[in-house]
Amino acid sequence: MDFIDLRAQYSAYQSEIDEAIANVLSHGRFIMGPEVEELEMQLAQFVGVRYCITVASGTDSLEIALRALGIGPGDEVITVPFTWISTAEAIRLVGATPVFVDIDAETYNLDISKVHDAITPSTKAIIPVSLFGQMAELEVLDSIARDSGIVVIEDAAQSFGAARDGRRSCGISEISSTSFFPAKPFGCFGDGGALFTNDDEHAAAMRSIRSHGGERRHHHTLVGMNGRFDTIQAAVLLAKFPHFPSEVRRREELGKRYSKLLESYCETPKIAKGNSHVYGQYTIRVPERDAFQGALKERGIPTAVYYPKCLHQQPVFRSLGYELGRFPVSEQASRQVLSLPMHPLLSEDDQNRVVMAVKEAIDIVKS
Fold it and tell me: Which of 129, 187, 310, 337 sits 20 to 30 Å CA-CA off 29?
């Protein structure tokens, strides 16, 4: 059994994907070819915003957003310590300082009640991470940000396709970012990402920065980067996109089924009011994780731990001065969460096998 079965997905859509790739090989516009613009138009319409700017990776998307806002040395950006390193890494890459705020114990998203106390005159942005597949309380954060004169950048690397009160992830905040890494809910066959906004100036700046800061060829107004999205990867996503809504529905069905079968045995995902969940990862919480994970491995069940060490515990961020215990909810989650196999082509038979193994592993750990 695969943790995420990307080969099964390719087999399901092989004819469409192969044809899309062949078209790119035929026309030869491998960088910024017509498929890139077509994908951007379709994704902007799907999310419900005016602009989508595809880029080379989810990490690049965050850095480009920060650069477009003019954020740099001396500035602070609020985010969470319980996430993949790229969120805070992008802040450091532009010379700004990450300011960590603890997470909510149920959703694993930014604890809104702690944000006000973290805002200082140096705060220029907030990057909430819509972790594991459901959105943060973006409308509340946007209100806080407007009152403080700062910008919210949704990190939607794991939540593309999710919604909150009928509004899709990447469609609420002033700027939003997502990732097309193969294992994401909407993934290509390599690295990739995108930015979303309704703001004309933000869109123009982000589009320029992704291509060496050039408004047009040989005319560079900003310090940019090589952050362009490959045409072949855009073609892959265009081929997969018609199937994406049904994949989202299937993810929701599988997630609900997991929770129904497991809620009496372990702590299953909690969905905030108004949210849908795409289960970028189906993540449970168990007190004796290492022993539990070992028991699952013995039964042939692959698992993953996101994230065994919080960002403030990483050596690269030691200079920020956060001590162990500063973010107790994040630190506890890093010791207890475990993700189970999840992808839209997971069969119910395989899911039943996972559930049986989880129940057996829990009994072993308890004994």
Answer: 187
Please state the three-class secondary structure of 120-159 as a single string.
Answer: CCCEEEECCECHHHCCCCHHHHHHHHHHHCCEEEEECCCC
Angle, CA of 346, 352 and 355, to the nearest 5°: 110
Say which residues have a Cβ less than 8 Å from residue 255's Cβ, sequence separation at least 6: 133, 269, 277, 279, 282, 342
Write down the pTM of the prediction.
0.96
Note whether 193 and 61 are within 8 A (CB): yes
Q: Are 293 and 305 in contact (CB under 8 A)?
A: yes
Token digits of residue 303: 């698992």
Q: Position 208: which residue type?
A: S
Angle of helix 348-366 relative to helix 289-298, nearest 10 degrees, comes to 130
- Residue 225, classed as helix, strand or coil, is coil
Contact indicator for 140, 114 with CB cutoff of 8 Å:
no
Residue 236: partners with Cβ closer than 8 Å, 6 or more residues away? 17, 20, 21, 188, 189
Distance CA 346, CA 117 (A): 43
Q: What letter represents residue 303's amino acid?
A: T
pLDDT along the chain (367 residues), means of 10: 95 98 98 97 98 98 98 98 98 98 98 97 98 96 95 98 97 98 97 98 96 82 91 98 98 98 96 97 96 96 97 97 97 98 97 97 87
